[in-house]
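Appendix B, Record 12. Input sequence as logged:
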Amino acid sequence: MPHRRFLKRVLPRHEHIRGHRRFRLLDELLDDPQIFHLTRRSAAGGVANGLFMAFIPVPGHMLLAAVTAILLRVNLPLSIVLVWISNPITLAPQMILAYKVGAKVLHQSIGPIHFEMSLRWMGSTLMQSWEEMLLGCFILATAAAILGYLAVDLAWRTAIMYKAAQRRKERRIRDKHRKAAHD
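Logged structural output:
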């Protein structure tokens, strides 16, 4: 399948992940071949895991995504790559959106937010609104994981059905030519 070949080409290889210094603690767990296979289930699960972990507001996203990918036996490289949707550029909009979603669900008023990338700001602001932020993060993480899983599953199934239709079409043409040659 074209998408499978593309993913195998762009995702980190098993040897690269095993050799990475951050994953030395998981060395023995990385022996499971299932976490590196690209099947519909493992790819969809890896995407869902990576997207879920991207919205969890803790340091060490990558290690957390790796551990959960191993435990869930889903595609490890996809989980690690997709966790980087949450990065220094996207962090502010992501946390503001999480706060707004959480505040809406808890029926809290939403005041103006002045985001600042500093520990002082995080300490003072998060202490006041941590409930809204965490609830919003969990809701966004769950929604992103479900949508990611369903999107990959649908895309994979659609690609399989398209390939099957192409093979049927080619077979009909071939059979038609054979029949014409025999007549």
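DSSP finds seven helices and no strands in the chain.
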